[in-house]
Design brief:
about 220 residues, about 35% strand, mainly beta, single chain, seven-stranded antiparallel beta sheet, Jelly Rolls, globular, SPRY_dom, B30.2/SPRY, 14 strands, E3_ligase_FN3/SPRY
C-alpha cells in the first residue's frame, strides 16, 4: 500500500520545483494512443471546452479551446484581460463545465510534455492556489518520469512507469472518486477518494509541451 507523503508545494509559476517522490514498488503499464475500446458517443456524455477566462497567462488555448500549450515566457500579465476567474500564480486552466452529479469520462493526449497534471477541481477554488496543493482539487501528475496522485499537498506515488501518449480520467461524483484510466486495457490504474461538497470542473496544469483534451466519449466497459 502506498504511503501518503507530505512534501513542500509542488507547483511553481514558470520554473520547476517538483520534489522527488519515493520510488516504492512500481510496475510498468503500457498506455497507447490506440482507440480500440473507446468510441465517440452522441449521447448525453460530458462535453467541455477549456475556459479561457481561467487560463494562466503562460498557457495558450488552441483547437477550438480543447488544447493547451505552455509558453516558457508566457504573456505579460498586464497584457492579459483582467478576470477574477483567471489563475494568477500557477499554470492552470479549468474546463467550462461544472459537475455536481453522476459519472463522467474524458481523455487527454500528451504531446512533448514532461510535467503536467490532470483531474478535477472545485469551480470556486482559489485562483492563487495550484491544482494538487489545494484541498479543493484532486489530480494525477507526471514529473521527473514518475506518476503521482495529489490533493491538499499529500502525494502518493502511482504504480506506473513510463510516459503515456494518452490517458483517461473517470469522475464519479456521487461515489466520490477520480480515477486514472489505462485506455489500452482498459482499467483504472489508481483512484483518488473524495467527499465532494461543491461543483467541480475538469482541471489541468501544464509546465511544458502541450496536451489535448477529448470529451463527449463513452466510458470504456468494465471500469469499476
Amino acid at each position: 500500500m502506498a504511503i501518503p507523503i507530505r512534501i513542500s508545494p509542488l507547483c511553481r509559476w514558470t520554473g520547476r520545483t517538483l520534489s522527488s517522490l519515493s520510488a516504492g514498488h512500481r510496475r510498468e503499464v503500457s498506455l497507447s494512443a490506440k482507440r480500440r475500446f473507446i468510441c465517440t458517443s452522441t449521447g448525453n456524455h460530458l462535453q467541455f471546452r477549456l475556459n479561457e477566462r481561467t487560463a494562466h497567462s503562460s498557457l495558450d488555448l488552441f483547437k477550438k479551446d480543447t488544447g493547451i500549450i505552455y509558453r516558457m515566457l508566457g504573456l505579460d500579465p498586464s497584457q492579459v484581460q483582467d478576470d477574477p476567474e483567471r489563475f494568477r500564480e500557477w499554470a492552470v486552466v479549468l474546463g467550462d463545465k461544472k459537475i455536481s452529479s453522476e459519472r463522467h469520462y474524458w481523455e487527454v493526449t500528451v504531446k512533448k510534455s514532461q510535467e503536467f497534471r490532470l483531474g478535477v477541481a472545485e469551480a470556486v477554488m482559489s485562483r492563487d492556489e495550484c491544482v494538487g496543493t489545494s484541498s479543493s482539487s484532486w489530480v494525477f501528475g507526471y514529473a521527473q518520469r514518475k506518476w503521482f496522485a495529489m490533493t491538499g499537498s499529500k502525494v502518493v506515488p502511482v504504480t506506473l512507469v513510463g510516459k503515456p501518449d494518452r490517458v483517461g480520467i473517470l469522475l464519479d461524483y456521487d461515489a466520490g472518486f477520480v480515477g486514472l484510466v489505462d485506455i489500452e486495457k482498459p482499467r483504472i490504474i489508481h483512484t483518488l477518494r473524495a467527499r465532494f461538497t461543491a461543483p467541480v470542473c475538469p482541471a489541468f496544469g501544464l509546465w511544458d509541451g502541450e496536451i489535448l483534451t477529448h470529451s463527449g466519449l463513452e466510458e470504456p466497459e468494465g471500469l469499476k
